[in-house]
Amino acid sequence: MEVRHLDGVDDVREVERVNVLAWREAYDEILPDAVLNDRSFDTSDAVVEDRLAEFRDDHNRFLVAVDASDTVRGYIYLRWGEDAKEFVDEDEVGLKEIYIDPNYWGNGIGTTLLEHGFDLVPEHIEAVKLEMLSGNVVGERFYEARGFTPIATGEVEISDSTFPTIVYELQL
């Protein structure tokens, strides 16, 4: 598995595919079917171009893991500074997204992406924080096995409904 920066519209389409697959698997019993089924593999060219522009702005904060055929099997998206969520302080980085194709869960891709992602953060960063949906057992196991600890709860709005979340932190 190679880890590299995002490179063009094909990568964005693959990232979107991984995102949809991971959401449908990880949140199957957490989110309503209507929400999960609303996420589409058929992303319009305009949306792909917009996402590519967004990711290009954050080029140094977005990595993909690709297999020998250069197919994206997972990705990580980090944010810090003004781009981070409100619960992320100036000396912290926010793990905005990390998703792995469910067919590749348990193969070390997530851990590899975390390691490479942590190499991108500025030296003054002291911790990583993330927020995930409560009840995501796969996510809980993954983060806790890598030293993240739950530090707070919250909620997020998805499709006009509110769902509970957990905020995790890892001291670097």
Automatic annotation (TrEMBL):
Keywords: Acyltransferase, Transferase. Residues 10-172 form the N-acetyltransferase domain. PROSITE patterns: GNAT. Gene3D superfamilies: 3.40.630.30. One of its GO terms (molecular function) is acyltransferase activity, transferring groups other than amino-acyl groups. It holds the Pfam family Acetyltransf_1. It comes from the Archaea. SUPFAM superfamilies: Acyl-CoA N-acyltransferases (Nat) (SSF55729). The keyword Repressor does not apply. PANTHER family: AMINOALKYLPHOSPHONATE N-ACETYLTRANSFERASE-RELATED (PTHR43877:SF2), AMINOALKYLPHOSPHONATE N-ACETYLTRANSFERASE-RELATED-RELATED (PTHR43877). This is N-acetyltransferase GCN5. It comes from Halococcus thailandensis JCM 13552.
